Amino acid sequence: MFKPMKSTSLLMAAALGMGLAIAPAAQADIVKTYTTYDANSDGYWTEDEFRTYTYSTIDYDNDGRINESEWRDYTNVWYSPYDETNTVTFAKYDTNRDGYVTNREYNSAYDYNLFNTWDTNQNDRLERGEYKTVVNMYENYDRDNLYTW
After folding, report:
1. DSSP tag of 61
2. Which of 30, 110, 125, 135 is positioned for an S-S bond with 44, CB 3.0–4.6 A?
3. How far is CA 111 from the centre of its chain?
4. Does some domain include residue 80?
């Protein structure tokens, strides 16, 4: 488990406080993505659903495993807001050192603080509004448009 990123909470609070707007087309994509990963259709993401979402997002070529290039793109986009691009290393997750991170490896090394950061009201579930706020922030750092938000 990683140490909490203190600057993460401050940035999230700032994003929430600014009431960031999302374009209508982007909102439709957000609803579609959110619904897709809400496996039990209860209107909320559990930590397991969130972990599935993050793994799938990092594996942007959808081959069922994360290579080092995908990992580098992930850390450049997802950690840029926190100026901590080297916080999470590929080697920590690639435990068998085969050059890929499988779903099993990802789940065993998963950073639990990430879910807690996105769950801004700390109710142990990720609501659509929380997801929309965070995604809007990250979209600004995805300069190469690698991800579908």
Report:
1. T
2. 125
3. 11
4. yes
Say if residues 38 and 47 touch (Cβ distance below 8 Å): no
Q: Per residue in 11-26, pLDDT tens?
A: 333 333 333 333 444 5
Q: What DSSP string describes 12-42?
A: HHHHHHHT----HHHHHHHHHHHHHH-TT-S
Query: What span, in angstroms and rounded, lies between the C-alpha atoms of 98 and 94?
Result: 7
Please tell me the pTM assigned to this model.
0.71
Q: Specify whether the backbone of 129 is left (phi greater than 0), alpha (psi in -120 to 50) or beta.
A: alpha
pLDDT digits (tens, 9 = 90+) for 46-80: 999 999 999 998 998 999 999 999 988 887 776 66
Q: Is residue 10 part of a domain?
A: no
What is the tally of helices (H) and strands (E) in the chain? 8, 4
Q: Is 5 domain-assigned?
A: no
